[in-house]
């Protein structure tokens, strides 16, 4: 059985003077009234009574009161929780009359049910993590999201690389009339070197002829004395002239042009090879990109299946990309009433033994939405005690100047004669 509040009695807490309330077991109990009349003080008093010192208001005692705060809550199982006296000491009495303390209360009181704004003001990811903690798929989903993020980053890098390769390949010129591989110029260079060697030999022969002609001229001048030498030189000269007469130097211009043509051809070949390589790389990266896309979609499906099979506290509630989603909307796109419904459902599931939740400032809801929210609370078997700046018929009670409008106002207590005090019964 989830714990709910049957009755509450509050005296001298913040703006409250004396208030008695019997909230509805299921659905919405709205504490209405104008501003600064004590509505929120009632919720603060409940939170303090059940939640302990961490919820104690910084100025708990009503200003001007000589009587300390006096708080009493009766739960639906008969458990009585009281805080009273100068130190607001806690007294917990179970239905059998046994005494207990804060530890017993902590067992069924959900802290966020006493302080729903703490949950609502958290980041969307914090809310999502709370939900995942409830449904028990947090670790699995975290691992799947880690895998998805790694693959997404890898796919992004590969996709960019593929785009760069494709762009590079498109920008490269292509020459269809050249070989598929670079050609070698070594044979032409060898032929060129042979011709240059022969031309060098020819030059040496020309130099030899010139030398002999000089010697012949010298000998001729001395011909009278050197007839025998002249005869020998004439024979040598004859031979030398015959040897050099028909010599013709070969041109290397054609080979030089061929070598130049080879370099240009090879430049085109290399350009074609670069283009082919870029296209092949782009195709390979694109294939990797598509494979990662398939794997990412598989991981996302696993995540969806994981959440689809989970026992979620509210239809339409889910977690996507680490964000809390309700009916397809992220938190900041939800209406105020949707945020309240989601928060209430999640906080309720955090501790199913806690059957109530405190809600402050329901002015954001129009009357139709308020009625719809109340019906949903009833269907869920959940008790909500809420405040609203209103004095309309939607309010269960109206707080006016620290009292419940329509209730008998207790007589002012006599000033205490001793240092102690005793609070009167309601």
UniProtKB/TrEMBL annotation:
Record flagged with keyword Oxidoreductase = no
State the UniProt keywords alphabetically: Coiled coil
Q: Which Pfam families match?
A: AAA_15
Ranges for domain Endonuclease GajA/Old nuclease/RecF-like AAA: 3-320
Query: Which residue ranges does the record annotate as region Disordered?
Result: 407-426
Report the coiled-coil segments: 202-302
Q: What is this protein called?
A: AAA family ATPase
